[in-house]
Amino acid sequence: MAKILLTGVTGLVGAAFTVSILRQHSDIRITAIGRGRGKQSAVDRILETVKKQCEFDSVDKETESEILSRLTALEGDLFSLPSADELKKYGPFDSFFHCAADVNLGKDPEGKTRKINYEGTANVVALAKALDIKEFHYVSTAYVAGTLEGRVMEDSLPAKDFNNSYERSKFDAEKMVREAGFKFSIYRPSIVVGRLSDGKIRKPLAFYRILEFLAKLKKHTCSKMKVKATERISIPMRLEAYPSDTVFFVPLDYVQRTIAALYPLPVCNRTYHITGASPVRTKDIEATVHSVLKIDGITVQEKVDDPTEGELLMKRVIGDLMPYFSSQIIFDTTNVENALGKENLNWTTGPVFLEKMMSEFYRSNFPDVIEN
């Protein structure tokens, strides 16, 4: 039986991968390392997360039970990992799947993001070497490309400058993995959003902070105007971002099935852009917000002179996300296409999907701001 040692099981991608790979392959076992939270132990948190992912994936109870029977949960984090001697009784391990990370796109004055993403990966690499694990799978990010423009190839690391500490730390960690001496597969998702099928997401991250901010802004404004939050209103508000035609939203179910399909293939030191080949335009996102949330007046423009108090507030709250809506990068997907075929990329995230994804988020989290 093949055995995987895994970090990041309680995260969005880690949990999705865990359920998918155990569901599809009855000859795989996973030992997952994770942290407790509050009064909840690490073991309970890991098992609860995997059960929630099973529910999200419509896994029947019998299959869920079988999946959990091949999952071992252990307590630890990237700076207090179980020792190699302790882990050997669960091995030997065929591969290490390192997915744990701090996805903070803002400032990092205390260096926490870099510490987790770079130093934490160094600790994981050291543990993998102590266990003599031959294959290393690393979940990076497409945005190790930093501030580059144009086409970025999968097996390259050409960035010279970065938008934030997160990008830089993932760049340096990926470089470390490449040079560690393992056979490796590196997976680079872009902006993960809801499922292609229905727009749902188990754990909203990153882009959803914009949707959350706009919902709260509308509720506040409607309250002041003494109108229902479902009414169409105008809120003149300018977001400063250079308009882009290459915003790479990637549906969670595509990330899940693609990484699960790539994992069992021969590991041959390849990097895979888990981005799809169907970017959307900033203008499409803007138009969908107007349609779904019934807000007029919110626009994206390259430069905002003399920002209002509200615009300054918005910049403080969600300004760290704006570089991803100004990006001029095109992510090459040749390695994914060669490994899984052109049909793997045969999907789009156009206006229809954007409306489905945003509507689902608001129905689930802010049902009072849209009409069902």
Report on the architecture of this protein.
The protein is α/β, with parallel strands linked by helices. The model has no long low-confidence stretch (mean pLDDT 95). The strands form four sheets. A seven-stranded parallel beta sheet has the order 3-2-1-4-5-7-11, sandwiched between helices. A two-stranded parallel sheet has the order 6-13. The termini are far apart. It has helices spanning 12-24, 42-56, 61-69, 84-88, 112-130, 165-179, 208-225, 252-262, 282-293, 309-318, 334-340, 351-365; strands spanning 2-7, 28-34, 71-75, 95-98, 135-139, 150-152, 183-189, 191-193, 233-240, 249-251, 270-274, 295-301, 329-331. Helix 7 (208-225) packs across helix 12.
What characteristics describe this protein?
seven-stranded parallel beta sheet; 13 strands; globular; alpha/beta; 372 residues
